[in-house]
């Protein structure tokens, strides 16, 4: 207090004489210092994990020391894009070399190394913490590269252990995938990448449905997914423990949607994240795991209910606690009565060090009371402590579960965070799903055919323990969902009749009850094949006959359509058949945007860069093949005259009318110095000029791929050449810097489309070319996104 000049614990309003408050673990470094670093000590944590015996004998001190160290920075290159190899080449040649042997604040910075267990050197780690990367002037260029490439979706800054679950799912492009607790979305991004392993296929047969219970976090999830520009992702907002069973139309009949792969990364106490979430040191108690165990088990049960027979579900937590890990898996296996089994994944990630799951553990209350068996728990604690939290008593049953196949990653083994992961394979329908559901007969029979066994129940979302026999009479929202199915799909109704019952393919909004929390989403309105919009689009872009018009949607059924989006055929099926039981936050990739000036050139819609890789295979005109030098001109100059292009591109552009165009670069395998991946950009052919419609970070990305460095000074206000660039050649180039205003072009010559986009922050960018090509200053006012 000010009067006594003594520190006061802010959690408990009492004066303390010690330098450390034992309850909230805050160090007071003298009066007036304010908040100081949290002490990375928690005696209860140490005592608990010593007793559990999870850490090999003699390694506990090393384990605790690793937990106190900052987590190293880890990045992952998006593997599904054909640009991944070029980004890796750029990282190795231009950035990692500059980082080697640096000394920052007395800490020697080691050169980044690839994660030995991640395929194709697509993930890297270094002993630099995120704080050092952000703050150090010596790493400013590397930090700008990471930020820019992350925004454009080419790099993800993701914790190493977080990358493990998607790899163990073994995703194929045809898989239907559910991510039950998806936010913030780094694992979801991996799932999308794996679906698009073959970039020659614009619409994989599979899809990802990413769910999160928190409405606001769903929008963070949308931001992550949008960076990947996939038509095969849908973000929904539901409680994972009772996420609704969805339906699809299969050969004119309603079928239950079973997923081939499910990622069940449940909410947890997070004590494996202490290296990056320092607050956990102060807040950790054993009661956290006791409170979460029931929810984790309910989510896992709901997941395996929706898993197809033969499918895989990965259960994971960032906690080391057996109550949240092996206890949940053991309870799930016991409930399944042989329908599930733990898969042996020991050979799936060679190079990854992990500890096998344990078969015995104890439970401790926050007061320090230990219990080894349910029979020891007093009746007064039966509401907080449940039988499923203890290992099975039957030794034979316990051995048959093979809990040793679970994988626990300890921080000190490979300098990572703590993590737990288990891979479950579904061998048969769940025992409580073997009775016929309350659906019409053709639904039940088709579900039985799909699973290869008895028909699966439509919904067992909130099924309480011990009520398997009462399945047919259960109530709640899921029972209501069954009634909706009967009303929506009466006996004998054909697919055509059901489609006709929909209001012109309008999906949503969901029921009023589902809209109580969060924002009201615009509807998803699918276009028909004879929609007037397609008349001019078809002729202007000369779309191929196999273009899937039915997969195009908009977000309004009133007034003019501003943007057109595309989804895969399979996601369209899901949307049209589940609009009343599913709260969809976002889906689809933007492929066209309305341009008010475009009508006079033949089409009111211009191409959108987000969807160009999805749409381009169907476009047979309005395409200009460009060279590397052409791309450099287009991305660094605003509205360059057609004469600035090389002869081949110039001739193509002269023979093309005004309007939206595709600028396509085809790699030359005989010239390895040039990028060896295709590049497709949206552009606009003006009267005498041409421009590229590419968002800022994507411009930077493509320029880097072409060997051009792009970076800003630390304040983002002035220009800054490459570090150490003081030779005469670059000084001469700097004298010729040209400042270009991206908005104020010559309207008489460019005939560029007007956009209603908001202004981006005005900033200047330095572009330095290799071999003294050029150095010019670009000033961005607006960019058409």
List keywords for this structure.
6-stranded antiparallel beta sheet; 28% helix; Rossmann fold; disordered N terminus; 34 strands; alpha+beta; 24 helices; 785 residues
Task: Write a structural description.
By secondary structure, the protein is α+β, with helices and mostly antiparallel strands. Among the domains are: 73-157; 160-426, Vaccinia Virus protein VP39 (Rossmann fold, 3-Layer(aba) Sandwich), CATH 3.40.50.150; 622-712, no CATH class. 28% of the residues lie in helices and 18% in strands. The chain is built from 24 helices and 34 strands. Strands 7, 8, 9, 12, 13, 14, 15, 18, 19 and 24 form a ten-stranded mixed sheet that branches. Strands 20-21-22-23-25-26 form a six-stranded antiparallel sheet. Strands 4-5-1-6 form a four-stranded antiparallel sheet. Helix 20 runs antiparallel to helix 22. The two termini are 54 Å apart. Residues 1-36, 435-502 and 714-785 have low confidence and may be disordered.
User: How much helicity do the residues have?
Assistant: 25-40%
* Overall outline: globular
Low-confidence sequence ranges = 1-36, 435-502, 714-785
Q: How does the helix and strand content classify structurally?
A: alpha+beta
User: Termini distance?
Assistant: 54 Å
CATH architecture title of the domain at 160-426: 3-Layer(aba) Sandwich
What is the chains' assembly state?
single chain
Quote the beta fraction: 15-25%
Number of strands: 34
**CATH domain topology of the domain at 160-426:** Rossmann fold
CATH superfamily of the domain at 160-426: Vaccinia Virus protein VP39
* Nearest-integer average pLDDT: 78
**Rg from Cα:** 29 Å
The CATH C-level name of the domain at 160-426 is Alpha Beta
User: How many helices does DSSP assign?
Assistant: 24
Largest sheet: 10 strands, mixed
């Amino acid at each position: 207090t000010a009067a006594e000049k003594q520190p006061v614990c802010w959690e408990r309003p009492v004066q303390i004489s010690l330098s450390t408050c034992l309850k909230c673990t805050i160090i007071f470094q003298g009066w007036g210092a304010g908040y100081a670093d949290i002490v990375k000590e928690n005696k209860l944590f140490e005592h608990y994990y010593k007793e559990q015996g999870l850490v090999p004998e003699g390694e506990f001190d090393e384990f605790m020391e690793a937990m106190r160290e900052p987590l190293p920075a880890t990045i992952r290159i998006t593997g599904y894009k054909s640009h991944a190899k070029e980004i890796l080449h750029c990282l190795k040649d231009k950035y990692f070399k500059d980082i080697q042997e640096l000394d920052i604040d007395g800490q020697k910075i080691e050169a980044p190394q690839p994660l030995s267990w991640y395929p194709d050197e697509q993930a890297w780690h270094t002993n630099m913490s995120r704080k050092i990367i952000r703050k150090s002037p010596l790493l400013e260029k590397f930090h700008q590269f990471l930020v820019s490439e992350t925004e454009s979706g080419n790099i993800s800054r993701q914790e190493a252990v977080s990358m493990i679950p998607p790899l163990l799912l073994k995703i194929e492009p045809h898989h239907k995938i559910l991510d039950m607790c998806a936010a913030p979305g780094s694992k979801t991004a991996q799932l999308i990448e794996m679906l698009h392993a073959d970039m020659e296929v614009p619409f994989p047969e599979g899809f990802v449905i990413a769910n999160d219970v928190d409405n606001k976090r769903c929008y963070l999830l949308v931001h992550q997914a949008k960076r990947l520009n996939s038509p095969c992702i849908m973000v929904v907002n539901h409680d994972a423990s009772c996420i609704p069973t969805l339906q699809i139309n299969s050969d004119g009949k309603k079928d239950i949607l079973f997923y081939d792969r499910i990622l069940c990364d449940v909410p947890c106490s997070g004590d494996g994240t202490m290296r990056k979430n320092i607050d956990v040191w102060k807040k950790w108690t054993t009661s956290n795991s006791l409170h979460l165990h029931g929810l984790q088990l309910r989510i896992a049960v709901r997941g395996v209910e929706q898993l197809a027979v033969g499918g895989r579900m990965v259960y994971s937590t960032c906690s080391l606690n057996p109550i949240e890990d092996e206890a949940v898996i053991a309870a799930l296996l016991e409930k399944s009565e042989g329908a599930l089994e733990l898969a042996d994944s020991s050979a799936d990630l060679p190079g990854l060090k992990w500890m096998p799951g344990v078969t015995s553990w104890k439970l401790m209350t926050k007061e320090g009371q230990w219990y080894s068996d349910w029979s020891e728990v007093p009746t007064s604690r039966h509401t907080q402590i449940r039988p499923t939290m203890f290992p099975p008593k039957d030794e034979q049953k316990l051995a048959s579960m093979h809990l040793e196949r679970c994988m626990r990653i300890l921080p000190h083994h490979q300098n990572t965070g703590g993590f737990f992961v288990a891979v479950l394979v579904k061998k048969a329908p769940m025992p409580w799903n073997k009775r016929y559901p309350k659906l019409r007969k053709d639904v039940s029979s088709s579900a039985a055919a799909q699973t290869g066994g008895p028909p699966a129940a439509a919904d067992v979302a909130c099924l309480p323990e011990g009520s398997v026999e009462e399945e047919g009479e259960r109530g709640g929202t899921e029972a209501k969902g069954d009634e909706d199915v009967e009303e929506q799909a009466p006996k004998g109704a054909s697919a055509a009749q059901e489609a006709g019952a929909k209001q012109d393919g309008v999906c949503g909004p969901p029921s009023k009850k589902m809209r109580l929390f969060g924002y009201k989403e615009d509807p998803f309105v699918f276009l028909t094949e004879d929609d007037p919009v397609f008349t001019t689009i078809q002729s202007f872009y000369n779309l191929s006959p196999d273009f899937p018009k039915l997969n195009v949607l908009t977000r309004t059924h009133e007034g003019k359509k501003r943007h057109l989006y595309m989804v895969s055929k399979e996601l369209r099926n899901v949307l049209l058949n589940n609009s009343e039981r599913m709260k969809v936050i976002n889906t689809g990739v933007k492929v066209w945007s309305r341009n008010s000036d475009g009508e006079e050139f033949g089409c009111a819609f211009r191409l959108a860069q987000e969807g160009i890789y999805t749409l381009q295979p169907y476009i047979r005109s309005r395409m200009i093949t460009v060279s590397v030098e052409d791309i450099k001109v287009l991305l660094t100059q605003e509205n360059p005259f057609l004469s600035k292009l090389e002869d081949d591109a110039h001739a193509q552009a002269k023979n093309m009318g005004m309007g939206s165009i595709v600028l396509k670069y085809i790699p030359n395998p005989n010239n390895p110095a040039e990028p060896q991946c295709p590049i497709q950009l949206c552009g606009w052919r003006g009267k005498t000029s041409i421009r590229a419609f590419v968002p800022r970070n994507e411009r930077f990305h493509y320029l880097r791929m072409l060997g051009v460095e792009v970076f800003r000074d630390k304040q983002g206000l002035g220009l800054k050449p490459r570090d150490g660039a003081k030779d005469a050649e670059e000084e001469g180039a700097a004298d010729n810097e040209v400042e270009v205003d991206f908005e104020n072009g010559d309207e008489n010559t460019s005939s560029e489309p007007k956009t209603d986009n908001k202004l981006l922050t005005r900033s200047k960018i330095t572009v330095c070319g290799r071999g003294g090509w050029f150095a010019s200053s670009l000033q961005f006012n607006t960019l058409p996104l």
